[in-house]
Every structure is written in C-alpha cells, then in structure tokens.
Amino acid sequence: MPYNVMIVDDAAMMRLYIASFIKTLPDFKVVAQAANGQEALDKLADGAEVDLILLDIEMPVMDGLEFLRHAKLKTQAKVCMLSSVVVSGSPHAAKARELGADGVVAKPSGTVSHDLQEKTGEELANTMRAVMAA
Amino acid sequence: MSDEMDEIWVLYADDGGQAMDAMETALLQLQECAPEDQPPLVAALFRAVHTFKGNSRVLGLETVENRAHLAEDLIGLVRDRGVALDDEILSLLLETGDRLREMLEETARSRADVDPAGTDALVGRLRDKIARCGMAEAEQTPPSDPDIADAEPEAPEAGSHQPAATPPVTEPEADPAPEAPSPDMPAASPEIAGPAPRPAVQQAPHPAPAQSALASDAAYLAIFNDMVADALTKLCKARDAGDTAGIARVLPGLAHAARQLGLQAWQQLLETLPQSPQPGELHDVIGAIQALARSGAPDQGASAAAPEQAGFFDRISEALETISRLGLNYSLNETPDETALASAVAVLCEVADSEGYVRVASAARTLPAAVDAGGFRRSELRLYEELASVEIALGDTAPAGGVSPRKLLQNWCADHVFETLDELDAVLERLRKGSDASTDYRALERLIRLVHHACVHFDLNVASDLAMSILDLFSRGHARGDRPDAILMQIARGFVDTLELVFDAVREGETPDIERLEELFREAADAGFTGAGVMTVATIERRLGLPAEFHRVLSPESTRAAAQAMEQGRHFYLLRADINSDDALAQALFDLIGSGRIEAITNVTVFEGDKTIFDFLIASEQDEIELSATLAHLDPGGRNLVLMRSLRPEPEPSDQDGTPPEAAPDTVSDAIPSVEMSSEMLEQLGEVAAGQAMLQNMLRDLSDADLSETLDTVLRQHAGDLRSARQAMRAVADQMTEQLREISQLGTQILGHLSELQQLTATLRTRPAETILRPLAAMVAAHSRRNGFEAVLTSLGGDEPLDVSMLETLRTIMRPFLVARLDHPMVAPRRLHLSIRKLDDQVSAVLEDDGKSEPDPAHVAEMENELLRHGGTLRIVRRPEGGFRLHVFLPVNLVVLEGMVVGAEGTRYVLPVNAIRSIVQPDPSALVPVSDPDGRRTWLRLNQDELIPIRSISTASGCPGGHGRQPADAKPKVHIVLSLPDSCVAVPVDELMGQQLVLSRPLRGVMTGLQSVSGVALLSRGDVAMVLSPASLCASHSDARFPGTATTH
User: Fold this and answer.
1) Which of B117, B726, B812, B1008 is most buried, judged by most C-beta within 10 A?
2) B552·A90 Cβ contact <8 A
3) ipTM of this complex prediction, to 2 decimal places
C-alpha cells in the first residue's frame, strides 16, 4: 500500500511539479493538496487520510511553521518541510527542526522549482522514505 | 623546598592578598551603593573569590578552597539567580572574607591547609543561607529556579571542564532504567545524558514523541484548547441531530493530541470514552469532556490536569531541595547523608508512583546507587530530564507553586556544559574517524540539544540557534547517508571550542565574545555551498546586487546555476510573475524556461494580501530588447510578466586588480542598474570621517583650554603688570586665533568633500533617458507586430541624463499606456514619438500619437493617479492633423546643483547658477516704470535696447516677505538677471551669500503650494533655503520677455 501524501504549497505550479514527481514513486500517492496551512487543516478535519505531509513554509493565511504545530496535534501524519527557505544552515531550517519536523528538504530553485525532480528528486524521495520508516 | 615552590607560595600570598582586598573593597562598596549599581560590584566580588578559590585548589588547600567555594555559591545566587543582596548576605560575606584572609595568612606561613574545625560554624551558616535563598527564590520567582544553585556540583573554574577523574557523562550507568522502552523513544539510555525532554506519559498506550519544543510551545496548548471546543461543538451538533456519522474522527483526534502533549487527565478520560459514540452515549460523553474542560479554566489543556499536577510539584519540592543540596555536598567531597537521601528519594518515588510517573520514580531510585560525585551528577540529570518532561506536558502553570524542572534542566545543562562539550568533542572525533555513525549521530543529537538548553539558560541566542542549525546540517547529511564533510566537522569543532570560551567568560562574569559564533553561523549557512564546491550564496548575492527578498534563499543548485551563468556572460534579470491564478500563463512561462531561452535561477514569493506573486531571478542570452519581446509574446498586456530590473554582475575581486572591469554589454537597460557606491565615494567618506574626527579633537582641545586661567597665569608671572605681560598675552591670543583658523579651514575642507560626495552621488544615480526609450520602442514594435500591424516609436532626448527614480516612474507610466494603445489594430497609432526634455526643475515627456481613437479614460485616470503620486501632472491636447499629444510633467527630485545663495526679505534662496546671466546694481535711472496688463510696474533697463521685467521673489514664490516694490527713495538693490532661452527676468535681492553646491530636495506638505519654488536645500551653515525655479520666475512675464517688445513709458 503506498503512503498517502498531502502537498501543502501556495504555488499552484509547485503543487503540480511535486505531484508529478510523486507519481514516479510507487510507494507514495498524492491524496490531497492545499494552498495554505488553514486549507490543509480543513482538509484533515474533513477526513483526509494522510500519512505524510509535504509542507512549504512561506504561505498566506497560515504559514508552514504554524501549520506544523497544528499538524503535530491534529494528525499522526509525518511532516516533511519542502521549502525554499530551509536551505542548509538557515534559521528556518533550524526552527523547523526545533518544532519537530520529521524531514527537511530545500527546493532547488526557489519557491517554484520546476527542476525539483531533476535536482532534488533523489534527496526528497530518500527523505520521504526515511521519514516514513522512522 | 625548591625555589620554584617558594616562588609559587609567594605568588599565592600576593595574589590571595589582592583577591581579598578586591573582595573587601567590593563588599564595602556594595554596602553603600544603589541596587542598580550592584551588578558590576557583584561580578567583581565573584571574580575575586573565584580566583582565590582556584589558587587554593592549585596548592591543595582543600579546606580553604571549600570555604571559598561556598562563598562563591552564595555570591552566584545573587549574581545569576536574582537573589536580593540583603544585610545578612553582606555580613556573612564580610565575615567569610575575614576568615579567608586569616586562612591565607596562615597557609602562606605554614604552607599547609588549615584545620577545618575552626570554620565549621561559618560553613553551617553559609549553607543555611544558601539553602534559604534557594527556597525563597523558588517560592517567589518560579521562572528562575534557585535550587539549581545548590545543585551546582562543581566549581565552574576554567579548568573544570577537562575530563574529570570521574567517568564522563556517557559512562554506562549502574542502574539502567527498568521500564520497557517506548517504540519510538529510546529506552532509558545507558548513557546518563539521555534524550531531550519529552512528555512524560509513561503509562499511555501510545508513545509520546521526543520533541521537547513541541509541547513547551504555549501555542500547542492554545491549539489543543481550540480542538476541545471544536470537538464539543461537533458532538453537540451530532447529539442534537441524532446523527453520529460525522464524528467518527473527533474523539480519536483529540486523544492523539492529548497524547502528543502528554495531558494525562485527558488521555485517561478519552481512553474510557467510546471512540465512536452512539447517539445514546453522546450526552454522557459531552458531559465528561465539559467537566474536565471546566475543571481548570481558563487553560483547558494544562489546567485540566493542573489541580493534581501542581500538587505533584509542591509535594516533591522539599525532596528535590534535599537532593540538590546533597549533590552540592557530594561535589565538595562530602559523602551525602544516606538517611536524608533515602528519605528524599522515598518521598519522590511515592509521589511519582502515585501519579503514575514511573520514569520519574525510576530516575530517583538511581540516586542512592551512585558511588561517586560523577555518578550522582548523572542521576540528577536524568531525574531533571524526566521531571522536565512532566512539566512540559502539563504546561506553563504546572510549576507555578513549586520548582520548574525545565529550568532545572537548563540549569543542569549550564552547570555541566563543559562535560557535555567534552563529550560532544569526543563524539565528533569518532564521527570523523568513521565509527558507528548511527549510534554516534544519536549521541550527537542528544548532546547538541543539551548544549542548546545550556545556551538558552544563559540567553545566548546566537549560540542556541547555531546549535540547532548544526544539528540540522548533521541530520540532513545523515538522512542522505553521507558522512559529515570536513567543513561541517570544522564548524562543529569551532562551535565546541568557541562555546568553551564563551561559557568560561560567562562564568567569570565577563561579557562573552560572540563574534566568532556569528561567524560560524555564516559558515554554517554557507556549508552546503562550499561543500558542493561552488561560490557561496553571499558571493552571488553580492555580485548580482540581489535585493533583500532574495537573501539566503539561493540553494546550492541555484548558486551553481548562477555561477555558471556568470561565467558564460549571460544577462541577469528580475522578473515579477503573477501566474498563480493563470495556469496557462504559468505553463507558458515554464515552457519558456524549459526551452532554455531563459534559465530560472531561483524565485521568491511576494504576498499581496492573500494573493501570491513570484519574483524570478533569471539568466538569459537575450538582451533586454529581445527578452521584452519574448515576454510580450507570453503576456501581451504586460500586466502579469513584468521585467523589473536587469542585474549586471559585479566583476570578481581579482578582476579589479589592475585591470578595469569588463565593459558591460551594450544593452539597453530600462531596468535601471543598481546604484552602488564607488571607491571614490568611499574615499570621500573616509576623508569626511577623518576630518570630522580631527575637528572634534581640535574643538575639544579648544574647549578644554581655560583662557581666563591662562591669562591670569600670564599676569601673575608678570606680577600683575599689564604692560610687561602684554606680549605674552598677545601670544596666547594669537595661538588661539591660529587654532580657530585651523578649525575653520578644516571645516571648509569637510564641506568640500561633502559637496563632492553629493555630486558623485547624483552622477551615480544618473542614467540617459535612452535607458527606457529603446526598450519602449522595442516593445511597441513587438506588440504591434503580434497584433498584425506595424507601429513605430521614435524618440528624442535619449541623451538627457535623468535620475534612476525618474526613469523608473516614466517607464511605469508609459509602458502600460502604450500597450493599451496598441491593443486595437484598427484604430491603434502607427507612428508614435516620445520626446523627453529635462528642465531645471522638472522633466517633460511628450508623446505624439497618430491613432484614430481617444485614449481610454480609465488608462488616463490610472496614469494621472500615478503621476499625482509623484507630484506630476498630465495634459492631453488634440492635434489638428489627428491623434493627440500627451504632455507629462514630473518634478525633479534630489538634484545637486551649483547655486547662488541670496537673501531677500529675510529669507534665503538658491538660484541655479547656470540660469544667471548677470548680476547688476542698477543706477536709479535704469529702473523704468512700465504699464503692463497687470498694472504699473518697474522694469530694468539693461542697455539701450533691452528692458526686462523685475520680479520680486516673495511675490513670485508666495513666501512671506515684502511686496516686491522698492520705495522710490531707496538705494536700488542688487538685481540678478536670470535668462532662459526664450525669456529673461531680473530678481532684486538684499544680499549675495555666494556660490554653493546644494542638494535640492522635493517640497513636502504645505510647501508644495509655493510657486516658483522647486525644492528646498540645506545650506552649509545649517540654514534652509528655497530653491527657485528660473523657468517659473520667467513664465509670468513671458509676454514681455523679448527685448524691444515692451512698451516703454
């Protein structure tokens, strides 16, 4: 059974890219998408069965770090940060770790990374698997 | 005894004497000083005693060291824990100081330790006071816990963090935790420094997570409270509707959250309730939840369990106090009183067991098993960790009536940070050698978290953040299966080394130097980049002059791509894309990116309300004209894809050595290259700064010199005889005059530098109008072609130098207007002509349009609004031959001009020198009364054939002042003749102040209503002057501006 994934990202194109990448992973399946943290919470409250959340940080309405707090209480899903502001050594990356993110991966080319699969695909897939295996 | 030892004892006596003197001095001053002046004195006191204690230890004087240590602990409570320095403490410390001095003298004489019995009573009083201070603080100020002061196991001297004789913290414990480990939580570790604090839900059916920060964040409890309220709403709705279909996940979700936070009362309740209640059960379920929620308002999450948990901490506070004190005794080589320890542990275990905190009880039971001070210390840590977990799970109100285990844990970590750093260093070494990475990574994470707690304790924010940052870097590498690279290892080692120094400084009461930590933070931020062998993000940011929103968002991949594009000499641009709601346009843009014509290096999000826009940093072979055309194909309206700026990479530093930077490609840049400070400007600034410092010194010398005193001295030297003293007094006066002259010269030099700086700044900000004219022409051609016709934009005034902000404004106004004009091929213009002209105080842009339609009123209104925002105006005139002419006027801001400063009717004015034709003081006969349509006025005859109007500045500008007419009998004023190509006017002034380079700033507020005034300027003496507009002054007399055309009477 593949793991159910929710993509939370305010960039429509980025959601498309991530979903497209996940289609190439047989052990994961996108079951929900949301454009911000609040929308993601609403979908979880509506009954979305999610094992892993891929979460952007900079989003309107409710950002990723705020959602992370909610997610830790409201779902048993693992959370992997996928954001352009969590590059190695950045304060956001440290904060995400402090708040209990299960995995942290930086987008390769900014908020909308068209080259996600090409440049970070392997790292993202490895991290997703490591997070689910932990 | 050797000479060397003799010398050491002499040194001990000398240093000890100085330390005792310092202690006494500090104590005496503390008796007198105000509370706000105490901290530096307390720090000095601490240092004195600390030094003395260290010296005593070196010579093996255990009793002396022990007594000094107790004094140090008491002072430490005042210095670090906020204990008030009362009379009792002062008296006790004064007495201790006396006794220590006696001991110093005795030991220096006997070269042996003193008899401990002589100070037993003092030791008892010191310990008693320390204990009472600790208790009092715990009761009065829960956030900072005094107990830890008693628990401080060892003196914090500089050398104490070396590996001790006792085993380091990772030595296997004698009494491993008996309980079974949770599946996702490490078993009670055989290493004493266990995992980071975690919610203590020992008997919960589900394991609790091991993230302390998760539950220590007050936001979580607020979220839980919201969840409870939400659950009740849903349950009530279901009860009222008699339909339970929508509540299947409500109670399991709440139970999960309670487990995550370790809210035991909630867990117990939710485990007893049916997971999917039937309609008949809902009433009871709701009642039970409401009862628990109400039981501890206002904070449902924490308070629900608070009544019992707060009692827990109250009930164990005395036992904890005892354990802390025994730990202190142990560290002073006094074996703990077994009975007291057993009693305290029994109380702890009984209370913990009664609450179900089996891990707490288990940790407490390891204390009596400790065989030495090190073992006792490790058991203490474990106990504090478990208690902190309980506190975290209960929320902030839990320790309100007792101790705060979280603070205890932070304090413990702070007290033992040197041991932790030693262990961290050892783990790093093992990782470097490639040992069992998984085990060592876990140890590394745990130790870094302990260091993090210590940093939080001392408010070392940079260090605590850096700790988590380093943890993140290691974790990523571990997730990838990488071994830590050399750079990361170096950063981590540097972190350990630097923290040792920092903590040492903190312990000594000194201000730590955290510069190195900040440097390490920067290195950590760059670690992923340098490790990948590419330029650092900082280099790319600097060379491209990236705006702030791009700071620290470049990933290693982006950095590499940018570096390659730079090497290939490609152009860089900032592109703003509003594509989130237009999938087709987004896809088209990414297709373009995919085609290779442009490369998206990175992009950032820009929020406009709830709307998300993206700023792309792109690289391309295309110059701006080509790129504009390319983008126009995707977004004909030019509204969603906006080329904001082009970026010209700064040359590499090595390129600047001797060889001039490579000339920028010959591209048109409506993108207004960024304005940067030149080395010449830096030099000027340096000159100004140096001159200012010198001026300051000279003025200080002058003000320090007491002229009266000097003159009195001279007089006294000459027995009060003024005549004989005259020459000497003159010399004094001459010297002072010379000093003043030098000051004046220096001031003039500084002004000169500042003027040059102004000029350089203005020059740097200047670009030719061509910068926007060419891209606009390209856009018109591309846009019209795409719409099936040919339109051409010609231009005039491309050489006009304009400020970059002016160019930006003109482009912002013109581009959308032109796009809109070209949208309807049938009536769109075929020939457009844009003429730009810079006047002395405004810029005029005139667009000729031969289109067959009127401009869209909506676009005109938009344009007017934009112009209004910049203080400009818009005028549209129909052309006889068809089409229209659009006149745009924008005021010039921030202009540096060479001005003639004048005074007229009490006000200072600046007249642009380049508009001054001559300055005359006319003979009364040259002032000729003339009748013009506005009445009878006085004109100035310049020569036989030339008569020009006279214009009063105050009348023209509307500034307060005279009426502009001169009394008939008054001596004629100086007149400044201003001349423009087609007009002339004479302006009478009261005084000429001289030429000066001034920076004209735009008028603001009510001043915008002043006529003939284009700006304000600050003069060198600090006065404010109005900058006059010659064009405006001449304009009112345009009907009489030509010689010979006026009627002479």
Assistant:
1) B812
2) yes
3) 0.74
